[in-house]
Give the backbone structure.
Amino acid sequence: MSKRSKIIIFVLVFLASFACLIFVYGDRVIVSFYGGGLVFNGSTAMDLHKASVGGGRYCIPKAYYRFSNSFYSGSSIGVNLSLDVDGFMPWNIYREKYIGSDGGIKLDKEIGVVLYSDASSSGREEFWRLRIPNPRVEKVEGYTKLWPTGVSQSELEYFLIPDGVDDYSVLIRCWKGRRCELDSLYKNSVRYKLNFDERYLVGLEELNSRVISFIDSLRCD
């Protein structure tokens, strides 16, 4: 048997063994392999998990959380949620309910909502001005569009600032043909990020309004 054949057999055996470990031990293998990294949450339970962000308390069904790390004591993951864009159903439940009904889940229907505390508006302004230096500016319907210059992915990555906003307090970061992320102030020192498919830029104002109402409904302080 040649040396090359032995290497191929070794690799195949290793991959098969690793796949068996994941099948048997699930998340524990992934955590160990990545040295304590993120573990996707597969729960469909609607019992509440309480979280604190910026001094506010939020009571959120476990099925909404993207990572099960959020349930661990001392975790810094915080409030990172996954839901469907139409009815705001927890993504885990949506996926379980509709998978296979039309050949598979439409991933473009998944949106992400992240809550985090950030009291430094001046620091944020400075960060984005350094991150997008001397951008190419283009006016599009409803937005000022910023294209980073001197970056290899400049034709893929772009930023949008809604009309009427004169700074970086509301910023939408997009990857052309893929997904976008809105970063905006919720209340006081609490900000939120809304991750969505690029096609939902049309009608974003209505979607964003629904998301704010959804966050309001999670408060329990």
